[in-house]
Amino acid sequence: MEYKYNFDKMTQRRGTSSLKWDDCDGAKYPLWVADMDFETAPAIKKAIEERTSHGIFGYNIIPDEWYESYISWWDRRHNFKMEKDWLVFCTGVVPAISSTVRKLTSPGDNVVILTPVYNIFFNSIINNGCNVCEVPLIYNKSLLEGDNLSIKDSDLVSRDIYKIDYENLEEALSDEKTKLLIFCNPHNPVGRIWSKEELAKVGDLCAKHGVTVLSDEIHCDLTAPDKEYIPFATASETCKNISITAIAPTKTFNIAGMQTAAVSIPNPELRKKIWRALNTDEVAEPNSFAVPVTIAAFNEGEDWLNELRNYIFENKQLVEVFTKKHPSLKLIPSEATYLLWIDVSGTGISGAELEKKLKSETGVYLTAGGEYGRSGENFLRMNIACPKKRLEEALALMDTVL
Ligand SMILES: Cc1ncc(COP(=O)(O)O)c(C=O)c1O
Q1: Atom number, ligand 1, closest to the C-alpha of residue 96
Q2: Residue 98 and residue 7: Cα distance in Å, rounded?
Q3: Which of 114, 125, 188 for a ligand 1 pocket mutation test, highest count of atoms within 8 Å of Cβ?
Q4: pLDDT digits (tens, 9 = 90+) for 382-391
Q5: What does the H/E/C string look like for 329-381?
Q6: What is the reported pTM?
Q7: Which CATH number fits domain 19-42+302-401: 3.90.1150.10, 3.30.420.40, 3.40.50.1170, 3.30.70.360?
Q8: CATH class for domain 64-300?
């Protein structure tokens, strides 16, 4: 495909206080933390430049345009009509998760997560004195054995590789100490887009046991080019009433350092509580760039995002070709996110050991799957949101070790 935007540009991030590039022991190919090596959309750069040139950076409010940009984006792209009242600004999805845990639980309560899952969920729970209640996803490894499984045409199969264990989930939810489920939709790191039926079932089980759902939907715009995610709150009336949805332009447009996000909470009582929590924790006020970047992203970033999704998909195919050459690696077909989840059990060493080996011998730095829960110990997570040339170089180096 011919690209208008230059995703091939070999951007240099070292020396910019980048977590990914400046906190990786000098690894030459840091393919770990979830941000991208691409410049953000031109409209966002322009919005930042305009705001900068004003030269005054005092306290800020949330203007109507901020609400409208979220509402219009979710309506256009995700078929979800949010109302202005439902939306509350916050400085990040993780701050929103931690505030929610604090508000809806007491120390000693349980918070359920479906693992392997985004590692910071563990921190938000533990830091607030709660118990992490891990419900591992069911992993049907046997489905990966065939040779013809492809990222491109394996929807049905891929949806069977990782599934929700409803029996264990219900057992966890039925414990009277369980107050909250932190759900990841689409799921980091296994790359699943949950179906409407799955979401509704999760909602029914949580409602039955009086458990609130925080649905983290930060990866929702990064689905494969022809695939659409389903917002948790749209799966059923129940899902709508018991949920807090955390959304943001940051993952999609590579602006995580701008610290801007939102929660959408249709239920007015729940919203009041979370509004209070975000304000108590002082994470409800925007810096001078948080609002303009959001408006530019959602109002003018669509074209850039459509190309980005395609570029990411091409990168996934590069990794797929590579893993097919290496039978010791099994790539989990991915419907969403730019993070690939690779079963490395065939190598005979754990994800953590392979991570160390690759890093020390080649400078390619992937994340050990055990970071995302015990069920991830035989996996590596690979961030492929970088110029193709960089990814190809990293794969060639990995080849020498594997
Ligand atoms: C599932 C998930 N939620 C939240 C975040 C981070 O959100 P924020 O930067 O808005 O705190 C990430 C970043 O990788 C993520 O993968």
Answers
A1: 11
A2: 34
A3: 188
A4: 999 999 999 9
A5: CEECCCCECCEEEEECHHHCCCHHHHHHHHHHHHCEECEEHHHHCHHHCCEEE
A6: 0.97
A7: 3.90.1150.10
A8: alpha beta
